[in-house]
Amino acid sequence: MLKEKDLLEAAAVEEIAIDGFDFIEFYVGNALQAAYYYERGFGFDLVGYSGLETGSRDQVSYVLKQDHVYLVLTGALKPDHNVAEHVHVHGDGVKTIGLRVRDCKKAYETAIARGARSAKEPQVVEDENGKYISASVYTYGETLHTFVERKDYKGFAPGFKPVDRKYADNGNERKVGLAAVDHVVGNVEVGRMEHWVEFYQKVFGFYVYQYFDKEDISTQYSSLVSKVMANKSGSVKLPINEPAEGARRSQIQEYLDYYTAPGVQHIAIATRDIIKTVAELQKRGIEFLRVPRTYYDALPERVGKIDEDIEELAKLHILVDRESDGYLLQIFTKPVQDRPTLFFEVIQRKGAKGFGKGNFKALFESIERDQAERGNL
Ligand code: FE2
Q1: 7 within some domain
Q2: CATH of the domain at 200
Q3: Is 1 part of a structural domain of the chain?
Q4: With 161 labelled, which of 103, 294, 358, 374 sits at a CA distance of 20 to 30 A?
């Protein structure tokens, strides 16, 4: 949990003002097919496109939207393009975590002055849709943070043509209910977590929101340590994991071996009705990690009274954790590309602001069962 030292360090650095997550961009091998997966599987609507038809000669992007969540899927049209190289080295994965700001130039200049590495200087675009300003800095691995100042810009971003494609089943639009990005987690190499914790403290003015040590997150086989970095409003939460010594290969190490670099491990998306959301996602073929029946037998004693029917949660393999302010429900997908790297979390918060510490053991044992099936444990 919070240490006095972390709070003091946070107080010393003025925070870069960030309203929240703006978009998350993936570099993928085949953006057209990936878009289909997020539309049909996860219930996103296609709202924007950029490619040859819009004058983009070497890369193509699809913009998907669901409530407040924007995903961008980008692929290369040429073999020597940086997107193609990224996919060659890392497989499909997250390239950019977009952060919405009110003053892009100030955010970027502050970050650079405090030691962040530049990826793109502020770029101001004015077109018929309004004014759009963006700039990017590097975080862990090859991952970027892009500051986005939209003002009243209409549409997603310059260069994208609006699209209105909603996936309908028998004429009915099928709602999934994914509402907003809750947190985005990064995996870094062993011994590097503190470096990135300091980066978010000293560059962004974030603080350590929560801390999980080896004892919190260890199973019979493997373990990891984690610190959650956040801004004071709590609108941006970025946990950082590193592998810890265990009897076998940590799941974080498996990620690093296949992504071949630090990168985004999972994206958690909040819903207002997790039972409905997960039932719908499962109907659409999204695969989730499963927990043994014994988890639910022990649940009433562990979390006390909850609104949901435990049998229903057990059927869908949804996890529950109780904290002082309330409880949360969560579930994790299997990896969403060929390599065992990125996955999604679906989360519903009922008062609880944490990350499901009480579920770590059950969850990580579940991940390890899959890891063992891949011959990587
Ligand atoms: Fe999470």
Answers
A1: no
A2: 3.10.180.10
A3: no
A4: 103
Tell whether 362 and 235 lie within a shared domain. yes
**Ligand 1 center to residue 353 CA distance, Å?**
11
How many angstroms is it from 182 CA to the middle of ligand 1?
A: 8
| Single residue among 121, 156, 172 that ends a domain in this structure | 172
Pick from 172, 191, 223: which residue ends a domain? 172
Task: Spell out, as residue ranges, where the chain has pLDDT lower than 50.
Answer: 1
Q: What residues form DSSP beta bridges with 353?
A: none
Question: Are residues 185 and 97 part of one domain?
Answer: no
pLDDT in tens, 184-195: 999 999 999 999
Per the structure, the complete domain to which residue 117 belongs is given by 15-172
Query: 59 CA distance to ligand 1 centroid (A)?
Result: 31
202/277 same-domain check: yes
| CA 63 – ligand 1 centroid, Å | 23
The residue with tokens 């909850």 is 306
Which residue type sits at 317?
H
Backbone phi, psi, residue 46, to 5°: -80, 120
pTM metric for this prediction: 0.94
Cα–Cα dist 325/99, whole Å: 28
| The Cα angle at residue 202 between residues 90 and 123, in degrees rounded to 5 | 60
Cα of 78 to ligand 1 centre, how many Å?
Answer: 35
At residue 280, the pLDDT reads: 95
Q: Rounded to whole angstroms, how far apart are CA atoms 37 and 236? A: 26
Q: Distance from the CA of 250 to the center of ligand 1, in angstroms?
A: 17
Pairwise CA distance, residues 198 & 332, whole Å: 28
